[in-house]
Amino acid sequence: MEPIRLGLIGFGVVGAGVGAILRNNGPALAARVGRPLSLIHVAVRDLNKKRPALPEGARLTGDPFEVVNDPSVDIVIEVMGGESPAFELCSKAVANGKHFVTANKLLLALRGEEVYRAVEVAGVELGFEAAVAGAVPVIRALRDALAADQVEQTRGIVNGTGNYILSRMTDERVTFAEALKGAQELGYAEADPTLDVEGIDSAHKIAILAALAFETPVDFSAVYTEGITRLTPEDIIMAGEFGYRVKLLAIARRVDGQVDLRVHPAMIPARQFIANVNGPFNAVEITSRAAGANMLVGRGAGSGPTASAVMGDVVDIARNIVKGGAGKRYPMSAPVAARRRLPARPISALVTEYYLRFTVPDRPGVLAELAGALGRNGISISSMIQRGRQENEPVSVVMLTHKAREADLDKALAEIANSGLCAQPTMRVRIVNDERA
Amino acid sequence: MEPIRLGLIGFGVVGAGVGAILRNNGPALAARVGRPLSLIHVAVRDLNKKRPALPEGARLTGDPFEVVNDPSVDIVIEVMGGESPAFELCSKAVANGKHFVTANKLLLALRGEEVYRAVEVAGVELGFEAAVAGAVPVIRALRDALAADQVEQTRGIVNGTGNYILSRMTDERVTFAEALKGAQELGYAEADPTLDVEGIDSAHKIAILAALAFETPVDFSAVYTEGITRLTPEDIIMAGEFGYRVKLLAIARRVDGQVDLRVHPAMIPARQFIANVNGPFNAVEITSRAAGANMLVGRGAGSGPTASAVMGDVVDIARNIVKGGAGKRYPMSAPVAARRRLPARPISALVTEYYLRFTVPDRPGVLAELAGALGRNGISISSMIQRGRQENEPVSVVMLTHKAREADLDKALAEIANSGLCAQPTMRVRIVNDERA
Asked: Which residue intervals of chain B bear CATH 3.40.50.720?
């Protein structure tokens, strides 16, 4: 029987996982699809690098454009990552009438609208379940399962590296640098961990989810993004004493016709489900009007989970090819023409509770100065702790606030910074007490 | 623009929820689909009963066959429940070329293969996300997201009523009867709670999930089914002392080419995620070879969640109608012709640890007799507790066993029952320590 022919761009960790699924699961996949799947063309960056054997007859190339221009290829799988040339490859593949499956969150966060439009115009299929939270079916939940509902909020832990580091900082009371080193040794963090620990990878993912959940184009630069590099063991211990766990949270919320989009460390009540998602796990919670809160948890990265998600999309599309339905659905929950741009809500409009850690000299009057600056800007304090006394050494003063406006807090913290009182920059962590936050 | 025309069979709690979504979300749904959705024909059991207003122009009938025979109806939504006439209505609708969306787990557990085959032959679409765990996208996870993976196990808490009752028994130390009464007062349990508390509803759902996960027809009578009615507060308290929580677990496992399918109360280590899913929530954990364990949690019942799931399927199908792809996909993960019947694994072949509670007279020699019967059948005891002493009154002796074969334990318990030693039938609860259990 005529196979469905696959082209693969990128043969790193995920590409090797794709190869493994095709090798181990071939007959089962052929039975599910109704025709065999055959990997016929593979593009790699370095032709001389040692790599797992390719299937018999597969062509290897150093030029990914050969794959998207190969007239025999039915479905292109892109697992190379990055914006360019991934975007150009996607555009070319789609223009050539090929279906496109990608794990590339950066591509979709930055160029998603162009991709969705091109896919819809070309009448091909787009698979991108692997772009967010591996094989955890968050894309299908938003696009299909909740297609009749009104999503109010999507939030989650969508970066396994960051969550692993925070879990180690919490469980072993080590510093960020120590936890990062451990993560790198285990292969959970890359040599350059910036995308993960600065929250950028999480921001990519929440931008994709928001675009889907709220049927709006998302301007990626409008996503407020703050990483976990400044958190100290002290912050995490103090959070625990107040009943919170610290997580790198990605939040997309619909508020007053605006979209609130942000990634930052958050203190979450320890009793909440999402506060207990630890190690390399991802969790995405979707709150919609009729269904309430749904939570999806699983491994969000790694060769197996990502390849499972990629190949799930491939099988899904291949079945549609066999049945004649391929390209006869929208890539998003609604046709591109029905998408309306919702304005971004600035972080300054956020109203929440805050954890503040000041590093100040241990002398009378300091507290009054801090409290004064906060009070003048309408920030009211719910708890305060000062631990230890060290004469001539700065000490930590930790305050929790009642609900306050971020813009007001910014002003208060600027006053405090200008006063020269603090020996170090003040640490601020947003507290997420509400289920809708 | 020409609407997509819906027929609705059943206008109870879920039917009213469907009506509410159409009313509240109409313009958004029309934008997503590309054409408006219009409810044109509704069948109810009792024409005289008071009910929410129908959309203008909708016909009301007491005969559901009128809906499936209405040539204007594009999609039939069946939320009446039960096997008959739901099966006949489904068959007729499908034969008439209509797409079919159902929340009816009993129908699919008992007659699923016939339904899947008829749908595939007719080239129409089947939506049944609502049949298991409400809007939690377990059907899409198994059918689509994990379509390239090999599912090894699916297990979960899929009955909100049972979970609510167990949660109250755990938190408030009330009896089953008291917790049931509370659930009934809150509308979480029906007047006749048999399907829920005897595990039958859970068995329906796990049969559907197994048929999908393992691409096998399932003989519903082969699902081992045991409810929660015999559990006592003492069992739940003892479980807690040993570090377990008691849940009504539905398990579908692939073992040695067989399918192990069962529903029973289970003691689960309190640290496991699923042990902490409480109240009316459902959770389904899917373990597959490449992706590992994915867990999906949400409200599994009620008007809003079920109607959201039903209408999600409707929108999904309506989009396909507009784009010309409707009916061009398989109802299950594989074509019916590719489905192979896997043999059922009998419960007697189960190997696990057990909690046993004997009710015996408090006199010397009794323990030796119990231990003797267990030992003769190869059952070894890991812990034993006897609480209190009441002369001339039977007392509880609780034992935990090491891993044992269910068939051996059956023999030992039969010997003990025949000895006339026990004042009441012995309580046995299976312990699920392994992630794969």
From this structure: 4-135+303-338
Q: Give the mean model confidence (pLDDT) for residues B411-423.
A: 96
Give mean pLDDT, residues B321-325: 94
Residue among B49, B50, B181, B205 flagged as catalytic: B205
Tell me the nearest-neighbour CA distance from B146 into chain A, angstroms. 5
The pLDDT value given to residue B1: 83
Interface contact B312-A148, CB threshold 8 A: yes
Q: Does residue B144 belong to the interface with chain A, where contact is any CB pair within 8 Å? A: yes
Checking if the pLDDT of B126 tops 60, the result is: yes
Please name the residue of chain A whose CA is at the shortest distance from the CA of residue B29.
A148
Q: Determine the pLDDT at residue B393.
A: 85
Nearest to B148 among A293, A297, A308 (CB): A308
- In the predicted structure, residue A437 carries a pLDDT above the cut 60: no
Burial bucket for residue B334 (CB in 10 Å: 0-12, 13-18, 19+): buried
Taking phi over 0 as left and psi of -120 to 50 as alpha, with beta for the rest, A392 belongs to left
What superfamily would CATH give domain B350-431?
ACT domain (3.30.70.260)
Judge whether B267 is closer than 8 Å to chain A, CB to CB.
no
Residues 3-42, chain B, touching A (beta carbon < 8 A):
17, 20-21, 24-25, 28-29, 31-32, 34
Task: Copy the structure tokens of residue B329.
Answer: 């996909």
Interchain CB contact of B215 with A (< 8 Å): yes
Residue B280 has pLDDT above 90, yes or no: no
Q: Any bridge partners for residue B400, and if so which?
A: B355, B383
Q: So what's the pLDDT on residue A54?
A: 86
CATH of B139-299, one of 3.30.70.3550, 3.30.360.10, 3.20.20.140, 1.50.40.10: 3.30.360.10
Q: Which CATH architecture has domain A139-298?
A: 2-Layer Sandwich (3.30)
On the question of a cis peptide bond just before residue A64, with omega within 30 degrees of 0, the verdict is no
| Packing angle, helices B406-418 and B366-376, rounded to 10 | 140
Q: Which fold has domain B4-135+303-338?
A: Rossmann fold (3.40.50)
Is B205 designated active site?
yes
Number of neighbours of residue B359 by Cβ within 10 angstroms:
15
In this prediction, residue B54 has a pLDDT band, given cuts at 50, 70 and 90, of: confident
- For B79-88, letters b (16+ CB in 10 Å) and e give bbbeeebbbe
A294 chain-B contacts, CB cut-off 8 A: 135-137, 296-299
Tell me if B149 and A294 make a contact (CB, 8 A cut-off): no
Mean pLDDT of B395-404: 96
Beta strands, E only, A32-179? 37-43, 59-61, 75-78, 99-102, 126-127, 151-157
% pLDDT > 70, chain B: 99
The per-residue pLDDT for A116 is 98
Distance from CA of A203 to the nearest CA of B (A): 22
Q: Is A297 on the interface with B (CB under 8 A)?
A: yes
Give the pLDDT score at B436: 58
* Whether B148 and A312 lie within 8 Å, measured CB to CB: yes
Q: Compute the average pLDDT of residues A150-157.
A: 97
Q: How far is B18 from chain A (nearest CA, A)?
A: 10
Best to test chain A binding among B1, B99, B146 (most A CBs inside 10 Å): B146
Q: Where are the beta strands (DSSP E) in A236-390?
A: 244-255, 258-269, 281-288, 292-299, 344-345, 351-361, 381-386
pLDDT (tens digit per residue) in A346-376? 999 999 999 999 999 988 899 999 999 999 9
